[in-house]
């Protein structure tokens, strides 16, 4: 079953929906496409180093969006916390954070 091409847009829509629920006043703004605020962006190596040092997170998944931008999931080994990044030209922007990351491939392997 090949669902990955649809997974990233679904994740982004879900993140927008969750953001709107947490801040109804900005619901319209959360739905409008566009780059994240510059305050959420920094050099990729610096962002990955901070996430590894401060939150024990490492890259667990990534995919190309359009050949110049990638989406990267960084999570703790047990999936307790995760961070979603958009990466363009070695600049990473934080799109969202959460808890209980579940890797479907790993979940399937553990179930055997």
What are the defining features of this structure?
112 residues, 4 helices, disordered N terminus
Written account of the structure:
Mean pLDDT is 75; it is low at 1-10 and 12-32. The chain has two domains: 1-34; 35-102. The protein has four helices and five strands, in the order ααβαββββα. It has a five-stranded antiparallel sheet with strand order 1-5-4-3-2. The chain is α+β, with helices and mostly antiparallel strands.
Count of DSSP-assigned helices = 4
Distance between the termini: 18 Å
Radius of gyration: 15 Å
- What is the molecular shape? globular
Number of domains: 2
Rounded mean pLDDT score: 75
Helix content percent band = 25-40%
Low-pLDDT regions: 1-10, 12-32
| SSE pattern | HHEHEEEEH
Structural class: alpha+beta
Please state roughly what percent of the residues sit in beta strands, choosing from under 5%, 5-15%, 15-25%, 25-35%, 35-45% or over 45%: 25-35%
Q: Kindly report the spatial arrangement of strands forming the biggest sheet.
A: 1-5-4-3-2
Beta strands, count: 5
Largest sheet: 5 strands, antiparallel
Quick structural gist:
The protein has 112 residues and is an alpha+beta fold. The protein is 39% helix and 30% strand.
List the SSEs and their pairings.
Elements: H1 4-22, H2 27-31, E1 41-43, H3 44-55, E2 58-64, E3 69-75, E4 81-88, E5 91-99, H4 104-111
Antiparallel strand pairs: 1-5, 2-3, 3-4, 4-5
